[in-house]
Amino acid sequence: MPITTRSTMPSSTPAAEFFAAYLQDSVTQKLDLNAFVWPEGLRPETSSGGQFSNDVPEIDISAAMLAKNEGVRAAVAAKISKAAKEWGFFRIVNHGLPPDMMSRAERQAHKFFALQLDQKMRAAGSSSNPFGYAAAGPSRAIMRSWHETLYMLCNHARIDNLANKVWPVLAFHCSMALSDYTTAMNKLGLQLLELLLQGLGVDRNKLTRHYSVEGSSSARINFYPPCPKPDVTFGLPPHTDSGTLTILHQDAVGGLQVCRNGKWIGVQPKPNSFIVNIGDCLQVWSNNIYKSVEHRALVNSSRARMSLAFFYNPTDDTIVAPIKELTSAKTPAVYKPFSWAEYRLYAGTHKSKVLNAIDHFKVRQ
Ligand SMILES: O=C(O)CCC(=O)C(=O)O
């Protein structure tokens, strides 16, 4: 579809200047600001852009975290499982993690994104290494998104290395805050996965051996500067997440939208909660019982927004395939087995062009 040029990005706002500077940087491709203008019909619906809803199921997981009583735990697992089947998304509250942990991570991330571009570029990734700093990532082949990211593998040494590249003097606080955050997310990820498996009636420890602190879980800190024309572009365009599950913290500004029965629903920000969604691999393991659902991030014209997305992923050699107990003559395996490394690579190269990369691994009837 050709890019319409009727709606253009004004070039005189601070945010536009920021991206213009980024795009003129000699290390990157030269791009026109109109690369952010999405074709008509693919843009966000402005009417729903600023509205938030509390419809996404909210689950108090405190009882399961204390895990003394099996009956109480099973009740939480059943609620989580229902939400994962019906929505693919749910909010968790009373998870027991200190609120201070998220604000420390956010504070350090804000300091990072406030740096001059040349300083941030010291942590830039490359075509062979997706980790590090990036801005205005290409989506759907040629369109750009209005966001900057700091993407990291969740391993203290690697986070420390990234922080040291950018600001050796302050790196200690940054890497400690981000390492504390990712360590806590790794633990929470496993607890949620166990509850999700229990809710399917399979051994809750069935997949535990595929996860480790040195595995391939990653975290992406998304920063969305104010945008002069938020109705023609995205912070992040519609996508599903590739891994097992994602645990998202969003600040008070809001912009996450979830697709539900073909409609986009804005997720109300709420302090001390996390939004959890099912990724493609868990959809496969559950043989399509759990849903990996499309979501997207909108931007707005007045306030910068930040979100921290933790992607809970298995180790690279893990073979992902429908769990045997969830298949039967009536419900045969929907997907062929593949390794997580294989899918990560496939999704990395194809998700910018197709929405449902996972369909490539479907068993052909
Ligand atoms: O910023 C958001 O709310 C969404 C983030 C997201 O979907 C992602 O990082 O994959």
Task: Give a short summary of the structure.
The protein is an alpha+beta fold. The protein is built from 9 helices and 16 strands.
Describe this structure as you would to a colleague.
It is a single chain. With 365 residues, the chain is an alpha+beta fold. It has one domain: Jelly Rolls (Sandwich), CATH 2.60.120. Helix content is 30%, strand content 19%. It is built from 9 helices and 16 strands. The strands form 4 sheets. It has an 8-stranded mixed β-sheet. A 4-stranded antiparallel β-sheet has the order 8-13-10-11, with no helix packed on it. A two-stranded antiparallel sheet has the order 4-5. A hairpin with a 2-residue loop joins strand 10 and strand 11. Helix 6 runs antiparallel to helix 7. It is globular and about 55 Å long. The two termini are 32 Å apart. Bound molecules: 2-oxoglutaric acid.
Bound molecules: 2-oxoglutaric acid
Helix content: 25-40%
Distance between the termini: 32 Å
Sheet/helix structural class: alpha+beta
Task: Write the CATH architecture name.
Answer: Sandwich
The fourth-level CATH homologous superfamily is B-lactam Antibiotic, Isopenicillin N Synthase, Chain
> What is the total tally of β strands?
16
* CATH domain topology: Jelly Rolls
Pfam family, one: 2OG-FeII_Oxy
GO molecular function, one term: metal ion binding
Keywords: Dioxygenase, Iron, Metal-binding, Oxidoreductase
InterPro entries: DIOX_N, IPNS-like_FE2OG_OXY, IPNS-like_sf, Iron_ascorbate_oxido_reductase, Oxoglu/Fe-dep_dioxygenase_dom
